[in-house]
Every structure is written in C-alpha cells, then in structure tokens.
UniProtKB/TrEMBL annotation:
One Pfam family hit: MFS_1
Protein name stated in the entry: MOT6 protein
Gene designation: Slc16a5
GO MF entries: monocarboxylic acid transmembrane transporter activity
Superkingdom of origin organism: Eukaryota
Residue ranges the record marks as coiled coil: none
Biased amino acid composition, Basic and acidic residues: 212-222
Length: 490
C-alpha cells in the first residue's frame, strides 16, 4: 500500500461516508465482543467459588484484573496504534483474547485464572476495543457523536447476549467448556480488525520522508520537549536519555495535557474516582440475587435486561448529546447520568425481590446508557483528536487502578460482614461524589473561562470549548481530524 502523503486541496475525503459505515459496523461488533464480555463473569462467580474453594474477595480479583487491564492497557495500545495502525492492534487483541480464554479452560487454581482470563484476555480486549474507538475518531467528523453512540450499542448487545449464552452453556457444558467456546468467539475480533483498513487523509503539510507509523507532528513535539536543543547545541548524553524517556511518557500518556488542560484534568480525576463504584453492580448483582433466593436463570436475566434497554437508550442519548445546544456542555449530561447510577443503587438496599431487581435494572440501564454513550465523546470534546490516543492512554490507565481494587475491597468487606448491601452502599458513594465533583468543577471552570474571555477579548485564539483551558499546542481546524496516515501491514 502506498503512503499517500500527497493530497491536493479538494481531494475526496473518506470521512462520514462509504467505508466509514462498514468500520462503524465492525466497531459495534467489536465493542460487544470486548467491553461487553466482562458482564457475563458474574454468571460463573458461584461455580468458580465452589471449584477453587475461594472467597468473594479472591474470586472478584479475576473479573477485576480483566476489566482493569482492559482499560489500563491504553498506553500499550497507543504505541501499537501509532507504530502499526489500528488494524494490527485490533487483530492482535483478538488473538490474545481467544488465547486467554482457551487457556482459562485448563486452569487448576484461581490464581491461574488471574493470568489467563484476567491478564491475557483483558489485554487482548484492550487492544481491540481501544484501537476500535480511536479509528472512529478519524473515520467520522460530522457524525462523530452519533457514530460513538451507535458503536456503544455493541456494548449493550454484549450485555444482552453474553449472560444468556453464558448461562445456557454453563448449564449444558460446565464452565471449562464454556470458556473454551468463548475463546473461539473472541477470535472474531480479528475479522473486525480486517475491516478497519488504514485511512489516508488529505494534507498539504505532511513531510515526504515520514516513516511508517510515525506520528504526524512528532518532530515539532520533539523540538518542544528538548527545549530548543539543536545539532549545534547538543545536550549531554544522560540528559538526552532522560529527555527521550520524558518524550515517550508525554507522547503516550499525555502528561502535558493533564497538567495544562484543566478540563481534561478534572474529567480524568472524576471518572477515575467514579470507577471505584461503577463496576460493583456488574460483578455482584448476580451473586446478590442468588444469595437472596432468586433462581440462577432469572439472576442471569437481570444483566440481559440492562443490556437490552441500553440498545435503545444509547442511540437516543447520542442523538440528544449531539445537538448543538449541548456542544461544550456534554459533561453535565455525563455527570447527571453518573448521579442517577449512584441513586439507583439504593433500590437494591430496599429489597432483593426479583420484581424490585428488575426495576433497579431498568433505572440503572437508563443511567448507564448516558455514561457509556458520553464517556469517550466528552474526552474528544476536552482534547484535540491528534492527541486523543495519548489522552485516552492516560485516562484509561488511571481509571484501571480503581477498577482493579474496587471489587476486591468490596468483596473483602462482604466476606467480613456477610452483608451484600455494602456493595450498593459503596457503589452509590463513589458514583454520587464523582458526579457532584465533575459537575461543580466544570461549572466553576466555565465561569472562570468566561471571565478570562471577557478580560482578554483582544486575543485571536479563544478557547475552543467553554470549559477548556487555552492550550499551548496549535489548534486543528474546527471539526476536522488531524492530517494523519494510518500505515499498517496488509
């Protein structure tokens, strides 16, 4: 495949039409296979406890590691995407996911599951999912909000189908054979990756000697990072090594954006705190229902109800948030959805009857639709698309820490007290506090920015978003992706 660096003005752009919709379809399937997969782990919770004689805390480490690695492998995924392209990252992730689940079917201890299903499958899902999210930002410009919302319906489909399939296979074949079949299903990520062919965007400024996989503008970044160093004024060798190390960290973890962009800083901290409680109902809802006398099939149906409602609510949320009224204000919709998630948990505390749990799942699903549809869209609002992959890496690795420790700590509390109500108390505390923090902080930041704009009206480059700090980086054209090529092996 030729490297299309030469693109004249007025050349046809591949965004928002043609093959972009096939990529969107692949992204829907991909998110169902990856981000939707951990929802079914609760189905196996009781069987794994009996098989390995493990406590709630020990068993919960298995899905916690999977979800944490799925989100926290962002920097590695960022490196793969920038070096080899999205197609390679997605297909490699599919291979790792399948290998991890096949290996899990032969595990003889719960600690082995931590490595196979937790680490390997989680890392593979991370590569496939995050590379799929990144490529959507380049294939869609005008319809980017809608595309992200539609892609997130794949998670809803996964939430609907994975629990039903898991319960059926578990009843018929046992958990080991079920995990073996899951390995084959996850290999379909490779098919989705094959559809995500490299994209070539028009640009009159791409350097003709750019190497495959080199990030556009990397030379400018290096010049900034080396603080003006040039061949005429070389730096000491040790200083050069430290500078290169800093370059790598800044390139793939976006520490510079975190320090300079207050909107990105607040959003990352808020979501990281929120994730301490966000995953708890997904891990413990089925065990909680079974513990209170609900049949296993009905308990599995609860997760499917959440996913089924998400299928219809997420696109609506995406369309609503894409209206120009919410431009620059989607963070408030996100905070409201997180607040509703936290408040809904109190329903489970009131009663554990099946009908009450169905009501809980309906309300939780509506709130989750807002969180799921807006998470990455808000991130795209806060940072520029040419740094989105790096910003996503830092964003996900921070939230993965709380995703990792949240369920085991809550499981330890349940083991001590033998009271599942603490699951929902903890979840509500983290969700509500995070929602209030983000909403109030962005409101204050917006007022501060308006005052700054009023006092500096003579500036030529006002902030792009009402809650964004003025960036030191050059701004891209409005609603246009950066001049970037994705070069991959074919």
């Amino acid at each position: 495949m030729s490297q299309g660096g030469a693109a004249g003005r007025g050349s046809a752009k591949p965004q928002d039409r043609g093959w972009a919709w096939m990529v969107l379809l692949a992204a829907v399937v991909l998110q169902g296979l990856t981000l939707g997969f951990p929802c079914c782990i609760g189905i196996f919770f009781t069987d794994l406890q009996h098989e390995f004689q493990a406590s709630n805390s020990q068993t919960s480490w298995f899905p916690s590691i999977m979800v944490a690695v799925l989100h926290g492998g962002g920097p590695l995924c960022s490196i793969l995407v920038k070096r080899f392209g999205c197609r390679f990252a997605v297909m490699l992730g599919g291979l790792l996911s399948g290998l991890g689940m096949v290996s899990s079917s032969f595990c003889r201890s719960i600690s082995q599951l931590y490595l196979t299903a937790g680490l390997i499958t989680g890392l593979g899902s991370c590569f496939s999912f995050q590379a799929g999210v990144t490529v959507l930002g380049y294939y869609f410009v005008r319809w980017r909000t809608l595309a992200n919302a539609i892609a997130s319906t794949g998670v809803s489909l996964g939430f609907t189908l994975w629990p039903l399939l898991s319960q059926y296979l578990l009843d018929e074949m046992g958990w080991r054979n079920t995990f073996l079949i899951f390995g084959g299903i996850l290999l379909n990520c490779c098919v989705c990756g094959a559809i995500m062919r490299p994209i070539q965007l028009a640009s009159g400024s791409l350097p003709g000697s750019a190497k495959p996989g080199e990030e556009t503008g990397s030379r400018a970044e290096e010049a900034q990072l080396t603080n003006g160093a040039s061949p005429h004024h070389p730096m000491p060798q040790q200083h050069t090594r430290r500078t290169k190390c800093f370059q790598v960290l800044q390139k793939y973890l976006a520490f510079d954006i975190f320090c300079q962009n207050k909107g990105y800083q607040i959003y990352t901290i808020g979501v990281t705190w929120m994730m301490m409680g966000f995953a708890l109902p997904h891990v413990y809802l089925v065990p909680y229902a079974i513990h209170n006398g609900v049949e296993e099939r009905k308990a599995a149906l609860l997760i499917s109800i959440i996913g089924f409602i998400n299928i219809f609510i997420r696109p609506f949320t995406g369309l609503l948030s894409g209206h120009r009224v919410f431009t620059g204000r989607r963070i408030y919709l996100f905070s409201l959805a997180a607040l509703l998630c936290g408040l809904s948990n109190f329903i489970c505390v009131i009663s554990a009857e099946f009908n009450v749990l169905i009501l809980y799942c309906v309300i939780l699903s509506i709130a989750m639709s807002g969180v799921g549809a807006l998470t990455f869209q808000v991130l795209m609002d806060v940072v520029e698309m040419d740094r989105f992959s790096s910003a996503l890496g830092l964003f996900t690795i921070l939230e993965s820490i709380t995703l990792l420790i949240g369920p085991p700590l809550t499981g330890f509390l349940v083991d001590i007290t033998s009271d599942f109500h603490y699951v929902f108390y903890n979840s509500s505390f983290f969700l509500i506090s995070a929602a209030l923090f983000m909403g109030i902080s962005f409101c204050a930041l917006e007022k501060k920015t308006k005052l700054r704009e009023a006092s500096k009206a003579h500036l030529d480059n006002p902030p792009r978003y009402q809650y964004s700090e003025t960036s030191r980086e050059p701004k891209a054209e409005s609603q246009s992706p950066p001049a970037v090529e994705y070069i991959t092996s074919i």
